Amino acid sequence: MIMTMTAKKLLIFDFDGTLIDSVPDLAEATNTMLTRLNKTPYPVDMIRNWVGNGSRMLVKRALVGAVEVAEGQLTSTEVDHAESVFFDAYAQISGQNTVAYPHVDSGLKQLKQAGFTLALVTNKPIQFVPKILQSFGWQSLFEQVLGGDSLPVKKPDPAPLLHVCETLDISPEQAVMIGDSKNDILAGQNANMDTLGLSYGYNYGQDIRSLNPTEAFDDFQSLVDWLIKHGA
């Protein structure tokens, strides 16, 4: 696929699985939650497949031990309590096991210097985002940051992406959604903007290219190089 001819000004990034690998810390918080609820903890590699749809879905998947959670399988009260325990556990974690993927730090700065406006739209609860951004020194790179609970809906709904465009006064045609999962690609497609996929993140074992992003990459530097060459 070919990027639309409209010049790109705005790059909207996903967070977990795109810029950072937060699974070790998320897994620790998940297993702490399960232990406190007298349930069996799970291996990190299994929990990795449950990440990407926000904290509430992660909690639900952990409670049932599977990616698919049937309607009525859990009560709202049960999930509310477990999510509260999860939030408490995650807030206590230092974040030292959350790392940036290779070339992300230099790549973001390279894109900023090239004149792009950067924004962050994640399904992670917003309360946990600033601390992580600050730990990497990225807080000044993004013109806007939205969490999964910043609006009534989250990705794959296009509303967060369109909200960013409206707030920054940049049209969807001038924006690109960049992420590692189907939620990112679908959100971008639903917002009628170009999408760029990264294959190394959390996409439940599905090849990101099967979702037909405008283009896909296996490492962040390749994405940066391509954007600077084609995107502006």
From TrEMBL:
GO CC, one annotated term: cytosol
Residues at which Mg(2+) binds: D14, D16, D180
One GO term (biological process): DNA repair
Pathway: Organic acid metabolism; glycolate biosynthesis; glycolate from 2-phosphoglycolate: step 1/1
Domain of life, per lineage: Bacteria
Necessary cofactors: Mg(2+)
Function: Specifically catalyzes the dephosphorylation of 2-phosphoglycolate. Is involved in the dissimilation of the intracellular 2-phosphoglycolate formed during the DNA repair of 3'-phosphoglycolate ends, a major class of DNA lesions induced by oxidative stress.
Protein name per the record: Phosphoglycolate phosphatase
Origin organism lineage: Bacteria, Pseudomonadati, Pseudomonadota, Gammaproteobacteria, Moraxellales
